Amino acid sequence: MVLYDLELSGNCYKIRLMIAFLGLDCELKAIDFLGGEHKEDAFAAMNPFCEIPVFEDEGLTLRDSQAILIYLARKYGGEAWLPTMPDGLARVMQWLSTASNDLARGPNDARLHDLFGYDINVDLARRKAHLTLSIIENHLKDKEWLELGRPTIADIACFPYIALGHEGGVALDGYPAIRSWIERIKNIPSFVAMPGLA
Amino acid sequence: MVLYDLELSGNCYKIRLMIAFLGLDCELKAIDFLGGEHKEDAFAAMNPFCEIPVFEDEGLTLRDSQAILIYLARKYGGEAWLPTMPDGLARVMQWLSTASNDLARGPNDARLHDLFGYDINVDLARRKAHLTLSIIENHLKDKEWLELGRPTIADIACFPYIALGHEGGVALDGYPAIRSWIERIKNIPSFVAMPGLA
């Protein structure tokens, strides 16, 4: 099991967090992101989208952090993190699209601008971030977890870029339910942190 | 089974296509999109993101076209459209993230700009579209379907906004493998079209 990894990437961190929760052993291979290693031929052969993370297990190579979470949860997590039944499965999957789209183009984009100097419309990214956070805040007002009353990969997929929001100028002051949810995630046994998490 | 639907939406069309392939009966409730019905309280109570489609079945309400595809495939499609095993499941899921993010912010955004007058950076959307199409073209060069050697929800999720690209100024002239793949999808028994599909 190999994770092609960048310590500062929230999408890589999702996978490290899932691996920690599942108690798995995984080799981390650091990608020289600033040096552009993810754009070189060897990396593009694994993932033509030239994005991290990439994950290998038993001859399978996967791109996309959401797909990797699904793989790990299904293969090593039983029913705990991702149910097999249609109802629960689809409820969780709604949030993986939120992570892949709304949060990627919201707090993640704002952080890419502020932390890594990406050429991104940061005002638009922050507006999108707060729109999505307002919806999640309201959703979490009477819930401990995003779906199913327990931690699932929905929470893992959405957690990093929300919790790292302050690195893109997206503060969580107005979102008490989200802040409580973040604390609950941090209290899951075997939780591991990453740089930038308060 | 109810689909809150907009005929011109590629994300709604994905669901109509899946329903047709599965031979299901589903009531279509047209949303008055231009009149802003999706932003009214009754709709926001079903989906706080105020996006179509929304889908109801047996007391379950789902948002997000990718999650709805997953639900329908798992509940009514056996192993045909979405495998349960981790390897195949994750391979398919990679493309649902591509649909939810790259294609949404590529050809979909370009079409929203051209067809519906959305305030979107259309040059950026078209550049993203062609970057994603180039990757998919190369991926399909030696394949009939995106994954697993058969049609899956990966194909259904990615098909609409690629096939509708011309409505956002994203022509498919340079992508012969994609054009062949589109023809294969159109030849699946029970295929249904939507306005704008050539």
Can you summarize this structure?
The structure is a homodimer of 198-residue chains. With 198 residues, the first copy, chain A, is α+β, with helices and mostly antiparallel strands. Chain A has helices at residues 10-22, 41-46, 65-76, 86-116, 122-140, 153-163, 176-186, and strands at 2-5, 27-30, 54-57, 60-63.
Description:
The structure is a homodimer of 198-residue chains. Chain A is an alpha+beta fold. Chain A has 7 helices and 4 strands, in the order βαβαββααααα. The first copy, chain A, has a 4-stranded mixed beta sheet with strand order 2-1-3-4, covered by helices on one side. In chain A, helix 1 packs parallel to helix 3 (65-76) and helix 1 packs across helix 6. The first copy, chain A, is globular. The A-B interface holds A 48-49, 60, 62-64, 66-68, 70-71, 74-75, 84-87, 89-91, 93-94, 96-98, 100-102, 104-105, 121, 135, 138-139 and B 48-49, 60, 62-64, 66-68, 70-71, 74-75, 84-87, 89-91, 93-94, 96-98, 100-102, 104-105, 121, 135, 138-139.
